[in-house]
Amino acid sequence: MNARTMAITALLAAALMNPAQPAWACAGVEASDAWLREAPPGATMMAGYVTLTNRGDHPRAVRAVRSPDFSSVEIHRTTIENGEAHMEALERLPIPAHGEAKLQPGGAHLMLFEPAKPLKAGDSVTLNLYCGRQKPMAVPFTVRAAP
Amino acid sequence: MSSRFLTAAIAVVAALAGLALASVWLKPGTVEIQSGTLLQQRRALPEFALQGDNGQPLTKAALQGHWTLVFPGYTSCPDVCPTTLALLKALDAKLRAEGATPPQMLFLSVDPGRDTPQRLAQYVHYFNPAFTAATAQEPQLADFTRALGIAYTRVPSSSAGGYTMDHTAALVLIDPQARLTAFFTPPHKIEVMASDLQRLMGAAS
Ligand SMILES: [Cu+2]
User: Fold this and answer.
1) Which of B122, B161, B166 sits opposite A84 (nearest CB)?
2) Do A41 and B159 touch (CB under 8 A)?
3) Is the interface score ipTM higher than 0.95?
């Protein structure tokens, strides 16, 4: 092992050991129950849901979502206030340390614009979740015709 | 003789008491529903002209002769609107399974700028081919929604969707005489709504 290899190894080890500077930005975050609601024919928008669990000691936040299967993806939240349904875009989706962010119908959701091809129940698409500028977290979403 | 008179008197008193009790128990407006608000006095809707999902005008006559459940929304709403339509689909199936005639479901788009009749037809028929949809241009839409007690606001947004529509999350029940009857408020629960509807639609209006 020469000096250069040793230095690189040391840097890598430091990066792996220091959770504040993870090798990838969503470190410690796990995705489960990731699904998209099958949309009526001709729909130009779809909604996606997922549970993100942060097993780490540091808070994380999804700041952007991208996918080759959609023209754009936004993080949204539906609220019902004074009997009125309202939908707004969120800048970021925080996932507290040892906590979770649950995206579900009638609450926070991923808003998916212009699917590249019609998606039917059973299809799968990959969404890339960015917690920072580093490597995204690639999450497979299954299309479901569920309520 | 006096005993027959007594029997008759008791019968009259009992009948009067029964009538008095019945008038208290059966007084209109004392019926309660668990899933929303029942109007104490049903309110006749004014005449209106909407655009149906078949491209034809939809007027007050279309609401007569059957119950109607109106759901305000818009198709560029992929989260809460499909959730509610899927719920209405399940509610429709549940009522049919119980032997009841479900109300006609009417999706009322508050986004006539994007929701063409063709788009509305595709959207609601995906959930159930028997569901209907309508919208209207202004000021007809504002007039009709005001009569229904529905509010909506166009909210500009930097989102790729361009704008969103805030809208009343309640479902509006209209009776077979085209009178405003009840509001079902979220969170909508199928079991509770089904039993309320059974009771309302089964009772004489
Ligand atoms: Cu949205």
Assistant:
1) B166
2) no
3) no
